[in-house]
TrEMBL record:
Residues 187-433 form the EAL domain. Pfam families: EAL. It comes from Cytobacillus eiseniae. This is EAL domain-containing protein (Putative c-di-GMP-specific phosphodiesterase class I). InterPro entries: Cyclic-di-GMP_PDE-like, EAL_dom, EAL_sf. It comes from the Bacteria. Transmembrane segments: none annotated.
Amino acid sequence: MVHQRKIRSSFGKWMKLFLPLQKMRFFPPQFLVRDPITKGVWKAFNSGNEVAIVVFNIKNLRELPDQLGQQGYTKFIACLKKVFQEVVKQEIDSEEVIALHDYSSDGLTLLLSIDHSQYCVTEIDKKMKKILREAEKNLYTEMPAASPVFDMGYMFIEKKHYSIQEAIMKAHQQALAMAEKRVQSEFNEMLYALNKIIAKKDIRMLAQPIINVATGEVKAWEMLTRGPKGTGLESPLQLFSVAKQTGLLYDLEMIVFEKIIEQIKATGCRQDIFINFTPLTIGNERFVRDIKKMLAKHKNILPSQLTLEVTERDSIEGMDNLLYNIKVLRTWGFKIAVDDTGAGYASLHSISEIMPDIIKIDRSVIQDIDKNSVKESMLQGLLLIAREAGSLVVAEGIENKDEALVLSRNKVDLAQGYFYSRPRALEKGLKSS
């Protein structure tokens, strides 16, 4: 009963939405549950996207009426919503926004439709922090007398939940817990769950083949992570978002590396293996030492078989330790790949800084390339950049024969995607289908 009253209370007020961003409207709570939010979440799920709930919580909201007076407090609340609306409009594509509203009584909540093939967890985290920084700056300009103290947290809505409304509520409570870092809360439960996964190394690795476009043979495998089957952390987006927010991202990524090394040994795989790492992990001062220690236990696995894939679009400026670590790892024989090329300036800047052995062209360039001459011209430009950098090219996300034919006529080196094979367990003698 207490839980039901809490849920009713959370909806027991009018909420502000923008769908799209330019049109702000008010809806009664019962309409919200039934239509705009639920409809937006279902639409995102049906298009293959994930839905992130981001909470911008004000720790000292209840102290502000005393600080500002009732009139000043009312003005602050109106200013808060206006500022966040403007910043979100500047930073997020309107098609990605499901809702922005006062779902939490101590702040605002943003629901986003996330294409997991276009976004990584660290990028989402940085983008939300930028929104918060810009909003804080604009709030101070508008109302310098106010001094709100913000926390931020986010979580992804579980697709497998039997009730979409309860799934939204659960994800919101978890995002709020991440923001508040409350003792005896969902935050501690998720921290415990992730620590348990790391302690037991309870993750699964799937392999997706990387194909030689000219011959059709398997040249390499990209390893993909899944959490414990049937749990809320099975999805890699959920798993890595919790790891990021709980400070366990490095530990999780090192468990991934260890699991992959063990699978190479168990299967006797001799083809190249691509392993995803965030720049934060590769740039960690412990990374080189820890990698060396793991490889020392498996002397038959050579670094020359392993490609470390930098899975970020964000600029690597200021990450001197990352570049130094890459230099050291290269002297051992590791190859370096840059992911998401073509998704923006940051990925091209990363190429000039890292000079990678392999450039992976983002799915956004490849999708419907057979119907779009501009995209084919973009591909040709990226191939020229790759040749100048001395890099091989992998085209990601190939889903049909027509896309594959465009790669073939442009002499792209390698490709991967569902057209060739879905991810599966790495096994002895595994071939591409």
